[in-house]
Amino acid sequence: MKRRIFSMVILLLLFSQVGEAQLPNKEDSDTFNTLLFKVTSSENNQVSYVFGTHHAFGKVFFDSLILANQALASSEILIKENLNTSGETAEDIINRRTEITQWNNYLSKEDLTYIDNLFATSPTDYHKITPTEMYVFLNRHFKQQVCLN
Questions:
Q1: Contact between residue 118 and residue 103 where contact means Cβ atoms under 8 Å apart
Q2: Which 8-state DSSP code applies to residue 146?
Q3: Element spanning 36, H or E
Q4: How does pLDDT run across 36-50, given as a tens digit for each residue?
Q5: What is d(CA 34, CA 135) in angstroms, rounded to the nearest whole number?
């Protein structure tokens, strides 16, 4: 329990830093604190966009970024970091693994019960998730369930 509270405090501190990075910088008017950058060329009329978001917030957060979605939808070409191709999603890759993580070596019984409950309806076999992946999952879960609410 103490470990979970400590983890939440650390995550809150990290989240507050991310939140501050998105605030306008009043001291330096040349600093851009945004998720969407429009890139133009003086040589032609081509417009490109560079877009980045915090994946942990998920689809609801992404969908709330109306201007970014409009810019991406108006693009002739869109290059994404993942395509969610059948058989190649994170879930598919994890479930194909043969190596099992012995979570009882890392977690208390109470924490293991918490993880069991989180993954109870998940199609992903959490026994095949690495500790780093579990950290990322829990970080995302916390931000979606606590921070966004």
A1: no
A2: I
A3: strand 36-40
A4: 888 888 888 888 888
A5: 26
